[in-house]
Amino acid sequence: MWKIKNYFWVGKIRFCKKDQNFKYEVRAIDDLEKKIIPHFQKFPLMTKKKDDFLIFVDICKMVTQKLHKNPNLVKEIIKRAYRMNESGKRKYSKEKLLSLVAR
C-alpha cells in the first residue's frame, strides 16, 4: 500500500473501520490532474472501471474550471458522479443531494 503513495507522492492512506481495509485517497484536484489522471491515461484501465475513469476525468475538468460553483452545473456533476460505481454504497442518495442543491 505504501508503495503506491511513494510512487505518486500525493494523497494519503487511511484505515476504514467499516470494511477493515486500508484506502489510498487523493482528493486535491491539482494532484488528480497532474499525477493520477495522466498515469491512467498512459496505462489505461481495461474493465468497467475504464468507463468510470472517463466520467471521473470529465468531473475533474469541470471542477478545475470551477463549474461546480454553478448550481445547475453542480447538479450535472452529481448526476455524472452517480453513474460511476453504480453498485457501490453511498452515504446519500442522488435525489437527496440534488434536493440540497435545489435550495
How many structural units, i.e. domains?
2
Give the mean pLDDT: 91
Shape: globular
SS field, number of helical segments: 5
The value of Rg in angstroms is 15 Å
Biggest sheet, strands in spatial order? 1-2
| Main beta sheet | 2 strands, antiparallel
Helices and strands, in N-to-C order? Answer: HEEHHHH
Please identify the structural class as seen in this structure.
mainly alpha
- Stretches where pLDDT is under 50 for at least 5 consecutive residues are none
Strand content: 5-15%
C-alpha end-to-end distance: 41 Å
Count of beta strands: 2
The proportion of residues forming helix, as a percent range, comes to 55-70%
Short structural description:
The protein has 103 residues and is mainly alpha-helical. It contains five helices and two strands.
Topology record:
Elements: H1 2-8, E1 12-16, E2 21-25, H2 29-42, H3 49-64, H4 71-81, H5 94-102
